[in-house]
Amino acid sequence: xxxxxxxxxxxxxxxxxxxxxxxxxxxxxxxxxxxxxxxxxxxxxxxxxxxxxxxxxxxxxxxxxxxxxxxxxxxxxxxxxxxxxxxxxxxxxxxxxxxxxxxxxxxxxxxxxxxxxxxxxxxxxxxxxxxxxxxxxxxxxxxxxxxxxxxxxxxxxxxxxxxxxxxxxxxxxxxxxxxxxxxxxxxxxxxxxxxxxxxxxxxxxxxxxxxxxxxxxxxxxxxxxxxxxxxxxxxxxxxxxxxxxxxxxxxxxxxxxxxxxxxxxxxxxxxxxxxxxxxxxxxxxxxxxxxxxxxxxxxxxxxxxxxxxxxxxxxxxxxxxxxxxxxxxxxxxxxxxxxxxxxxxxxxxxxxxxxxxxxx
Length: 360
Fold this sequence. Notes:
Elements: H1 9-13, E1 24-27, H2 30-40, E2 47-52, E3 54-57, E4 63-69, E5 75-84, E6 87-93, E7 99-102, E8 108-114, E9 122-130, E10 133-134, E11 141-145, E12 153-161, E13 164-165, E14 172-176, E15 180-183, E16 186-188, E17 191-192, E18 199-203, E19 211-216, E20 219-221, E21 224-225, E22 236-240, E23 243-247, E24 250-252, E25 259-263, E26 269-272, E27 279-281, E28 286-288, E29 298-300, E30 305-308, E31 358-359
Parallel strand pairs: 1-2, 2-5, 3-7, 4-8, 5-9, 7-9, 8-11, 9-12, 10-13, 11-14, 12-15, 12-16, 13-17, 14-18, 15-19, 16-20, 17-21, 18-22, 19-23, 20-24, 22-25, 23-26, 25-27, 26-28
Antiparallel strand pairs: 5-6, 6-31, 29-30
């Protein structure tokens, strides 16, 4: 396994063919990021792309940053890195807002696609995807593949905000026949012209009793129809033949419906300790500990501060029965009062936390 850590695109392009099977990239420009995605799509390696802090925009076309592969190797993209020359991407800032991929209100932001029959893991963490615009699902992020893609998907500590699809799935579009984990993310102010403005997700499985979709500790807020459109379920939609689990998620201020469930082939959905007001579609198999507050008392909804206040019903209302991140979306301790909060952010009124904590 080779290791590439370079600042300049010319340095990457100048490497010998044998070194182009690199497993690791450190990128600092938009051109370097797209080049790394292109190399990773065909090098047969398990690739990690570390993205330094800053804002990245595509140079044109329908998609700002694209990865399409017919191989089974995995790819992982992670943001928040800083360098300490001569060591590149030496440290990671636990702030998803520090690394922004933008569609410039003109194109889809990020599309990761595996061919039918492939099983490569696709992983995304510690990034912001914003200002996407497309007629396709997933203006912010399209991840997985088409029918037959069987790789696992992980989306963790990612902010997907202010993306617009003129069809459906303004924020995230996800498809796999593998396992999907979507945890500790923020879906904010995404728009669409049809339905499912924050999330549209389909996970299929041969056995409908197998839980293969996990959505935990996400905050889905303020997702709306585009002007003049008539949408259904502007929050999230889950569909497929795999069983799904939603836990510790908060839905609030979505224009027309929070969560739409559509399962087939005997599949079912379990809802544990979520906050939602409107639920449509197929009835869930089980509901435990859910609450229903239209105003869950965020610190400052109008200014996008979606941490729960000390008096919020989200505070200490979640469950730690399922997988939790060690930190919340802001990079602070995930549990600070003995029980997890609902949503992507933990109330920090009772701890002293440094949101700029670094780790190597």
